[in-house]
Design a protein that fits this description.
Chain lengths: 289, 262
């Protein structure tokens, strides 16, 4: 069997210090993306547990697996969760959700929680799309732009490159930063054409890290173009899987000449986190009525 | 008098040698990673087949995306110019030329002399080029020729949502998993490329006769999809991949003949 270099590590996490049985509101958000799915469980608005895994061919099954994995070891069952919001590309396919909310709204809400109320521009770099979002101090969307038509500038494009160069996807960013001199970016926008271009660069004797540097910088440029169309208002923050690729992030910030906020939260759960926050608010609203 | 046209494409190199303005030899080879070396190889093969030496060629014109690689050429023309020239030579009634290669698509309006009036090109995105159908045939683990022919057996039109070739590959895989008949998948793929190419060609205007050239015009599934998308039948050139090189060779021939006249 050939190695699957695109395959990133799936995981779940839980805050042992929180005991949901003592808490009040247990809310959850499930983000079924085109490439990855996350489930986040919050207790009284605090992050309690989450999972991050690859989306399978069946969205309802992926949603179920994600929430099951987030609940693993917590003693929680679906019936103990007061309100569940589904989001993401497959949001209508979360059978156990009480409501579905768009991923744009959820990312803004989650980004606001993760990075604080100062954040005004959120760039979400997902598996099959890329969104530039403006939001207010409460995490409400004020404007957005999105590319979901083209793999250039998305995680899927990076996966194709990881496979081509046989470099594990999680190592791509750091390896791309190990070059002595920054190469010219890959000139093809289209991932399919960029692949041929990269193959010919390798034939010319370019090292893997140099080819990756050229691709990371091409991706950064592509995303920068989208962001510049919307405009970058401070503070700026990045979410999604590519936020973990230092090679793309550094080159993007250099090109835009901005800094980005940092967080201790996992950037890949922003959408599900936002959904869980909406779930809490919706539950409280229903109680109040 | 011998003249030659060399078309250095993304995937293949085509050489056409003319004797007194009529086709004497045609030769094709893969571009590979060393376009310069490959070009020289195909060129020499063509010369050998024609039984002539380089010195006996009065004029060589290069065309194609890699035309700069032909450092021994006496002149060069754009792909669009070569396509128009070659198409009108084969089909004097041609008004619109649709040229679809491995990594680009072109819509060209031309006059009766084979001069370009207007054109549109896509060379940025695989979704409007041969690379798209090739990627999908790979996903179905099928040679492209078989994939094209299979689409003619389709019994129903199914939609393809993805535009991008990378995303479409995942979509095709899910369609296979969902047990969709492969013939229907093949048709959906060809319809998708055809509709993107037709909408590009409409920007320059579609005027009959419409000639289809380029390597992708070999694909019967694609021809069928183009006819469906346009609402009438296109004229498909024989050996469509050579038309650009033929155009270049004709320009070479004319530049020598005109030179002699003056």
């Amino acid at each position: 069997m050939t190695a699957e270099y695109w395959r990133w590590k799936e995981y779940n996490w839980r805050d042992e210090a929180i005991e949901w049985r003592n808490g009040g509101v247990v809310s959850a958000g499930v983000d079924v993306g085109s490439v990855s799915s996350q489930a986040v469980i919050m207790v009284d608005g605090k992050l309690y547990a989450y999972s991050n895994m690859r989306t399978g061919s069946d969205s309802p099954v992926s949603a179920q697996k994600a929430i099951d994995w987030a609940m693993e070891g917590t003693g929680l069952g679906l019936k103990d969760i007061h309100f569940i919001v589904g989001t993401g590309y497959g949001r209508v396919n979360v059978p156990f959700a009480h409501k579905s909310i768009t991923e744009i709204a959820c990312h803004a809400r989650g980004g606001n929680f993760m990075y604080g109320p100062r954040v005004r521009t959120i760039l979400d770099m997902g598996g099959q799309d890329c969104k530039a979002i403006h939001c207010d101090e409460r995490g409400k969307v004020t404007a957005f732009l999105m590319n979901d038509k083209c793999a250039a500038g998305t995680g899927r494009g990076m996966e194709v490159f990881a496979d081509l160069l046989q470099v594990p996807i999680e190592e791509v960013g750091d390896l791309s930063l190990s070059v002595g001199e920054e190469p010219e970016p890959v000139s093809s926008t289209c991932v399919i054409f960029a692949k041929s271009e990269a193959a010919s660069l390798l034939r010319k004797g370019w090292e893997k890290n140099t080819v990756l540097a050229a691709y990371c910088s091409a991706m950064a440029h592509r995303v920068a173009t989208l962001l510049e169309r919307l405009g970058v208002q401070k503070e700026f923050a990045i979410t999604g899987g590519i936020a973990k690729n230092r090679g793309v992030v550094k080159r993007l910030l250099d090109e835009l000449k901005v800094e980005s906020l940092t967080t201790t939260y996992d950037q890949q759960i922003a959408g599900a986190l936002g959904a869980a926050l909406f779930a809490k608010a919706l539950h409280e609203k229903s109680k109040a009525n | 008098m011998f003249t030659a046209g060399i078309d250095v494409g993304a995937k293949a190199i085509k050489v056409v040698v003319l004797k007194d303005g009529a086709v004497a030899v045609r030769r094709l080879g893969l571009t590979g990673f060393e376009p310069r070396e490959s070009t020289l190889k195909v060129f020499e093969q063509a010369l050998r087949e024609a039984g002539i030496s380089r010195k006996e060629l009065a004029f060589v014109v290069a065309t194609g995306g890699g035309r700069k690689e032909v450092d021994f050429a006496d002149g060069e023309i754009t792909e669009v110019g070569g396509a128009a020239k070659g198409s009108v030579f084969c089909f004097p009634t041609a008004k619109t030329v649709i040229d679809v290669g491995a990594e680009e698509g072109r819509g060209i309006r031309c006059d009766s002399a084979g001069k370009v009036v207007d054109f549109e090109i896509n060379e940025k995105c695989a979704a409007g080029a041969g690379a798209f159908t090739e990627a999908m045939s790979r996903a179905l683990e099928m040679p492209i020729e078989e994939f094209g022919a299979l689409s003619l057996k389709s019994t129903q039109a199914i939609p393809m949502n993805a535009q991008c070739a990378v995303f479409a590959e995942s979509e095709v895989v899910s369609l296979i998993h969902a047990k969709t008949p492969k013939a229907d998948i093949a048709r959906a793929v060809h319809d998708a490329v055809a509709s993107r190419i037709v909408s590009m060609v409409r920007k320059v205007g579609v005027e009959k006769d419409v000639v289809l050239i380029g390597g992708v015009a070999r694909n019967v599934g694609f021809i069928d999809a183009m006819n469906r998308s346009l609402g009438f039948d296109v004229i498909v050139a024989d050996d469509p991949e050579y038309i650009g090189a033929l155009g270049a060779a004709l320009v070479a021939h004319e530049s020598v003949s005109h030179g002699r006249k003056s």
